[in-house]
Amino acid sequence: MKCPADRCRRPGFTLMEVLVALTVFLVGICSVLALFTAGTTLHQGSQMTSAATDLVDAALLTVERELAEVPEAELSTGKVMRSARPFPGADGFSYSYLVTERPHGGYFLELTIHWKEGGREQTHKTRSALPASSSLARLVQKRLRS
Q1: What stretches in the chain show pLDDT beneath 50?
Q2: Gap between the Cα atoms of 128 and 11, Å rounded
Q3: What is the pLDDT of residue 74?
Q4: In which element (H, E) is residue 68 found?
Q5: Residue 100 forms part of a structural domain
Q6: Is residue 70 within 8 Å of 142, Cβ to Cβ?
Q7: Please, what is the average pLDDT of the chain?
Q8: In a domain, 7, yes or no
Q9: Do the beta carbons of residue 95 and residue 113 sit within 8 Å?
């Protein structure tokens, strides 16, 4: 049976055309959502790194306080090391440090901030040369002389 010419040529899309268009649209939406997820993860990581960088100054003050209480026998070795310990006032962060004597006076301070991100341990290391005139170096030298 043949249909009249005016009924066979109706405007519109076939079911196949609609399904292909929906497939292309969904692939595009999924790609955009994947970009948002990756962007959010990257943003969270950079926030944690930025927070760790901000904690360096506070950690230096904490290290200075701790070095004031280090036994003289340990200071006389020219090397003071502390393993990771929780950072006061900053949940999820901890710090460790290593102070070593420089060959030409002063000290090196290697400070490491630790945190967990996505189930993995992350670190931010800072190494500073402390000249003999710095307050931290003077503190260590004073303790060595007494």
Answers
A1: none
A2: 75
A3: 72
A4: none
A5: yes
A6: no
A7: 79
A8: no
A9: yes
